[in-house]
Automatic annotation (TrEMBL):
It comes from Herbaspirillum rhizosphaerae. PROSITE patterns: BLUF (PS50925). It comes from the Bacteria. This is BLUF domain-containing protein. It holds the Pfam family BLUF. Residues 3-94 form the BLUF domain.
């Protein structure tokens, strides 16, 4: 089965609590597992950055559903490309809350989100490609 990786950024309509983020993760896991979608959601300073991995048609349908979620606005796809392998194969949905500053990749991930918010590159590389590189290494 061929897979795609879809990465989008969006802005939360309000500050998300730990409970809010746990609810999102739990819902995502139960929704994604049966449709063979994996990925990770990153939250920082009121912004979401999410990587979704799975069959292209399923990802497009899922993104259309996500786009309508009232917990965020101004959703924008940064990357939607075929992939040779999954970067997050173990997680039907991982969650990284960068607001708690506990991530071992904190500085790199915050830079990716900041670059994605303003549509700028990191060096000569897109934020999406940088994000995938962080987790492939």
């Amino acid at each position: 089965m061929s897979i795609n990786q879809l990465i989008y950024i969006s802005q939360a309509v309000r500050k998300m609590s730990l409970e809010d983020l746990n609810t999102i993760q739990k819902q995502s896991k139960s929704n994604n597992q049966p449709i063979e979608v994996t990925g990770s959601l990153f939250y920082n300073g009121g912004w979401f950055l999410q990587v979704l991995e799975g069959p292209e048609v399923i990802l497009n349908n899922l993104y259309n559903k996500i786009e309508k979620d009232p917990r965020h606005k101004d959703s924008r796809i940064l990357y939607n490309e075929p992939a040779k392998f999954r970067t997050f194969p173990r997680w039907s949905m991982n969650m990284v809350n960068l607001d708690d500053r506990q991530s071992d990749k904190y500085v790199e991930l915050v830079e990716v989100i900041e670059a994605a918010k303003t549509d700028r590159k990191i060096g000569s590389v897109s934020p999406a490609a940088t994000l995938l590189k962080i987790f492939k290494s």
